[in-house]
Amino acid sequence: MSIENDLWYLISGVRGGENRVRIIRLLEDRPHNANQLAGRLDLSYNTVRYHLDRLCDHGIVESGGQEYGELYYLTERFERHRGAFETVTGSME
């Protein structure tokens, strides 16, 4: 599946798309761990972990560091196709 198709599915095709966009926008600024994201987004830790797992499954986000407090980053695959993300999010407004 192409990254554009992945993004359409993850953001527009299923519930939780808005929260995934919010997570991606925070990760654009700098890496965060799941607890930091939960606090910044006012979401439960489990909700953030669920969305991070889906984003990782589709190659949008990757983790690094120690298991406890591991940081999440946007992947190079995502960065190469940032325009597709902007297209998908633009259609939501």
Biggest sheet strand order reads 1-3-2
In round numbers, the mean pLDDT is 91
Estimate percent helicity: 55-70%
Name of the CATH homologous superfamily: Winged helix-like DNA-binding domain superfamily/Winged helix DNA-binding domain
User: What is the radius of gyration?
Assistant: 12 Å
The CATH class: Mainly Alpha
Number of helices: 6
Into which percentage range does the β-strand content fall?
Answer: 5-15%
**Count of domain modules:** 1
Listing every helix as H and every strand as E from the N terminus to the C terminus, the arrangement reads: HHEHHEEHH
What does this protein look like?
This protein is mainly alpha-helical. The chain has a single domain, classed as Orthogonal Bundle (Arc Repressor Mutant, subunit A). 66% of the residues lie in helices and 11% in strands. It has six helices and three strands. Strands 1-3-2 form a three-stranded antiparallel sheet. The longest helix has 13 residues. It is globular and about 35 Å long.
